[in-house]
Write a structure and sequence with these properties.
Membrane topology: Peripheral membrane protein
GO biological process, one term: regulation of potassium ion transmembrane transport
Protein name: Kv channel-interacting protein 4
Order of helices and strands: HHHHEHHEHHEHHEH
Structural class: mainly alpha
Helix content: 55-70%
Mean pLDDT: 76
Shape: globular
Strand order of the largest sheet: 1-2
Main location: membrane
Subcellular location: Cell membrane; Cytoplasm; Peroxisome
Length: 218
Amino acid sequence: MLTLEWESEGLQTVGIVVIIFASLKLLHLLGLIDFSEDTVEDEMEMATVRHRPEDLELLEAQSKFTKKELQILYRGFKNECPSGVVNEETFKEIYSQFFPQGDSTTYAHFLFNAFDTDHNGSVSFEDFVMGLSILLRGTVQEKLNWAFNLYDINKDGYITKEEMLDIMKAIYDMMGKCTYPVLKEDAPRQHVETFFQKMDKNKDGVVTIDEFIESCQK
């Protein structure tokens, strides 16, 4: 639930928090992880994974997952996504299950675009692993870089007030009836005005990645 504290300071972190928790749910619903420790240990012991060893070795070097973890992730990914990729509609279906009280369509669209690093309309296993590696085990700097990419909707290297508003509205729409107290219709715009004033240090109408990281770290 949203609390009154979010009205003043905390909402800028909501996007990152939602990303992390929703990503865990995404893994669970895709069958990539189980929240039971015994099950995970059993999977590690019995994993017989179809993969190209050179690809997993490269991913192991590039990500923060072990080879066994990657094997389990790959096994589940291939079982649920035989084509080897996840499309945007799958993201939307998963998020609609996670946030049934709201409309998660727009947020799922933005998040899909953040995972789809090569912008080809699909998320491959490699895309998925690299994104999750940052979200779950990355440094603060890496997570903030990833979050900046999410907010930078048109990927031009800057966040505009309109882009931040679009993301904020999408978060509110996704939370739906889970918000308490009920927020006013213009609440997202008011939050954006407050955050943008803090982030846009040189008042040029856009937020750079340096401004974004500095503001979030403070």
